[in-house]
Write a structure and sequence with these properties.
eight-stranded mixed β-sheet; single chain; 33% strand; nine-stranded mixed β-sheet; mainly beta; disordered N terminus
């Protein structure tokens, strides 16, 4: 399953959970870096809030981090270079991975899975939603405004305003263009390279049968 966390056997030398509790949710505590995590996070720097070490990866070389007043709690997990900023919240059984970035008041809850996407403002992912970058086109979903996703979004898709993707619905863009959905309006930003013409690339020769080689029955 995509949401299943990997087993970890290393000790946590990346961060510690301090005694600094959250003002509203005292079961959450700030983290402090025990070593340099990235160019932006140095040993001794305070981070955001977690409920336990099960919320943020401490695997060697994993730069995943929680900044500011962002929160990861319950059975939610952040790993593989993913970042939480501002007052973003990841809770329940959500999984944030592969360089995904959450900021503002973005919220990922329930069993949502975010891979390499960007959520800002008050964007929300709920239910069993999946918001995925496209590994072939390198397209990254970008969500902002008050949009909400309960279904699946993948590729270079921008959801803004009050855009809604309901459960069971899939918005997939596997082209070089950018699909923009704002509320009920949809538009496309074409990639400039698609308006250029190029010569046909020759196809590799097809092997031909030699006479007398057919097998008889």
């Amino acid at each position: 399953m995509l949401h299943k966390k990997e087993m970890r056997t290393t000790s946590n030398q990346k961060y510690e959970i301090t005694e600094i509790s959250h003002e509203k949710y005292p079961f959450l505590h700030r983290i402090r870096a025990l070593r340099d995590v990235s160019a932006e996070v140095r040993a001794g720097d305070l981070g955001g809030f977690v409920e336990s070490e099960s919320n943020l990866s401490f695997e060697p070389d994993d730069t995943a981090w929680i900044f500011d007043d962002a929160i990861a709690c319950n059975d939610a997990y952040v790993d593989k270079g993913a970042i939480l900023r501002g007052e973003a919240v990841v809770c329940d059984n959500a999984y944030i991975s592969m360089g995904a970035v959450l900021s503002g008041h973005a919220r990922v809850e329930d069993n949502a899975y975010i891979r390499g996407a960007v959520l800002s403002a008050s964007a929300r992912a709920s239910g069993f939603s999946m918001i995925l970058n496209d590994k072939d086109t390198m397209g990254v979903p970008i969500l902002s405004g008050h949009c909400a996703v309960y279904g699946k979004v993948s590729g270079d898709v921008r959801l803004t305003g009050s855009a809604l993707v309901i459960s069971g619905e899939e918005i997939r863009n596997d082209t070089l263009d950018t699909l923009v959905i704002s509320g009920k309006n949809r538009s496309v930003i074409r990639d400039s390279s698609r308006d250029e013409l190029a010569p046909q690339q020759p196809s590799p020769p097809t092997p031909q049968k030699q006479k007398g080689c057919e097998m008889s029955r």
